[in-house]
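Anyone? Bumping this.
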Amino acid sequence: MIRYSIITILLLLAAFIVQQFIPAFTGMNHSRILLVQLVFLCCAVTVGQPTMLLLAFLGGFFWDAQCALGPHGGDPEVYTQQVENLRFGYSILLFGGMGFLMQGIQPLFKQGKWQFSAVLSGIAVLLYLSAEYAIINFVRGDFILNKPTVMQMVYSALLTMFFSPLIFWLLFRIAKACDHSINPEAGRRRRRTTH
Amino acid sequence: MKPLNLIALLLFLAGAVWALTRSDRSVREIQNAYYSAMSPFLKSGSKLEMQARAFLEETRHSKELEAELQATREQLGRLQLIESRFRALEYENVQLRHALDFKKATHFDVVAARVIRRQPTTWWRTVEIDAGSKRGIGTQLAVLSNEGLVGKIDRIDGAGERSSVLLLTDEKCQVAARVEGSPEVGILSGQRGGFDGDPMLRLRFLSANAAVRPGQRVFTTGRGGIFQPNVLLGTIESVEKGALDSEALVRPSVNFADLGAVFVVLSADS
């Protein structure tokens, strides 16, 4: 269990490195595969709450370190209405929220129905992007939502969701290598049917 | 709720509050540490990317020709910039001769850099370039191309070899701007949200009866302490008049989809 938890943390950190090399799809409204969020969501459904919260903290913290913009700069007398920045650390709470959402269907995952988790990871990414965009609008004023933005969020969620079976497959392999079961009820059922 | 879960939740919330209360300076330090740790991966990654790109290019040109072409392009862009700057200086000089109260000549020095990564974040319009503090680049410096203003330096990575450029098309990149052939000045910035085709800019805070029309060019005023004066920003596409002020939609002069070489203005006294 501890070995598996440590590996999920390392997997999340590795996702940050890989994310650096995943380009945005310009033909699809600059949508992208959010690998960090995907790895976090898939891991969140396979671990206990304390580990999920640790992953959420690390994920949100490093995501903001990667993406946060600097202060505006320039003469405040000329730039009187400066555009607000999002506060560093907001992603920690968003990651935490997504993690709790994923843990909500943990009983289904434990029964071996990982497909529900795969679909929910897409929904969670869509909710994450919507929440992030809503926060930007709230902080900066004027609610602006146009079709390209909606399409960007939808495409990003779909593209990310398509890769979730791969991450789950990887997690099952890691769990097996660590001698740890991430869906114990499914394993028990399988053993009962074979006897 | 289990006691262990409750303790974990409380620790998580305490950690989140700690992160949310960091000052801008501490955030910059955290980012520096993060990008320093990432630097070896980014370096080898971009090296591989460059090699792959060069390999593909080799099918059309020989490597020597390609390098020569790249150097010539950079040189051409640099000279075009200097030429346009000299024209602006010439104009300024004539005006100052009349006014007799000019302060000093303008020094204009640029560093050429290549765009190595586009749009690394979801919501912000940024690109990364292959030059950092090792080549004298610092934050809040203007970035130009031979077509006009590209944006400003937002962040330098810890190793000093890369920088992040906040593009003019981002809502957060505000530029004090003037309309050619009119006394109108305003603040130009990008627009929020995704864009389908060409990104457009908004020129706000023009006077209510602004005598501006489509086709007029927009330049930097040089006020505000970041951007040098008389750098081309774009061309007015349409004007919306309001009760208190007017706004104009501006088509940027730079083709942001095809950014290759850019120039960071190291020192320029406006």
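Late reply, but here is one note on the structure posted above: The radius of gyration of chain B is 22 Å.
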